[in-house]
Amino acid sequence: MPESGALPAPNRTDLTAADRPSLIGPLDTIQVDVFNVPDLSRELQVDASGRISMPLIGTIDASGKTAGELARLIETSLRGRYVRNPEAIVNIKSSVSQVVTVDGQVVEPGLYPVTNQMTLMRVIASAKGLSEYARQDDVVILRTVNGHKMAGLYNIAEVRRGAYDDPLIYANDVIIVGDSPQRRLFRDFVSLSPLLAGPLIAILQ
């Protein structure tokens, strides 16, 4: 049964996604070492679009790749460009690419980096805002807390109006705007109580 209240914050183990390789993402800092070509070895920051730029190679897409995959891509790009049998090693030095998934009625659904103090409104802004016919009162945040999957139902219009706080968003959250199976869990409860003073929270498992 859903209840009114705030979606609790996840703990440290909730934030660690199981069986997920470390993927390079926007704004991560990486170290690239190319053996026997010290001029190409350098520390780089991945840009906001997920790309890096290197001499002899130009711009390549690093986002979504493991360090090993990016090293192979660098070797392939260098092969035949002045470097014989290139060997590259890539290390992720610092990662800010913890991500949140935004789906449904937003202009650009996808994965977005989570920074400190990321909120629901900021994430939706990152996704270029709500689509033209988006249901502002049908925004669900899915989150794992202490091993339990939880859902929170939010009304963007009410947050904008200041009726309640803009909720904090954490890594691995999933935000769904519009109709969804998770949204339907709240249907009966909302029909009884259409004027909500705050978000509704439900435990899914």
How are helices and strands ordered from N to C? Answer: EHEEEEHEEEHEEHEHHE
Mean pLDDT: 81
What would you give as the CATH superfamily of the largest domain?
Outer membrane lipoprotein wza domain like
What is the fold-level CATH name, i.e. the topology of the largest domain? Outer membrane lipoprotein wza fold like
| Uncertain stretches of 5 or more adjacent residues | none
The proportion of residues forming helix, as a percent range, comes to: 10-25%
Layout: helices, strands, pairs:
Layout: E1 3-4, H1 12-15, E2 29-34, E3 42-45, E4 51-54, E5 58-61, H2 67-78, E6 88-94, E7 99-104, E8 110-113, H3 120-126, E9 139-145, E10 148-154, H4 156-161, E11 174-177, H5 181-184, H6 187-192, E12 200-203
Parallel strand pairs: 7-11
Antiparallel strand pairs: 1-12, 2-3, 2-6, 4-5, 7-8, 9-10, 9-11, 10-12
Short synopsis of the structure:
This protein is about 20% helix and about 30% strand. The protein has six helices and twelve strands.
Key words describing this protein structure:
wza like fold; alpha+beta; seven-stranded mixed beta sheet; 19% helix; single chain; 205 residues; Outer membrane lipoprotein wza fold like
Describe the structure.
- There is one protein chain.
- The protein has 205 residues and is α+β, with helices and mostly antiparallel strands.
- It contains 6 helices and 12 strands.
- It has helices at 12-15, 67-78, 120-126, 156-161, 181-184, 187-192; strands at 3-4, 29-34, 42-45, 51-54, 58-61, 88-94, 99-104, 110-113, 139-145, 148-154, 174-177, 200-203.
- The strands form 3 sheets. Strands 1-12-10-9-11-7-8 form a 7-stranded mixed β-sheet.
- Strand 7 and strand 8 (110-113) form a beta hairpin.
- The longest helix has 12 residues, at 67-78.
- The protein starts with a strand and ends with a strand.
- The model has no long low-confidence stretch (mean pLDDT 81).
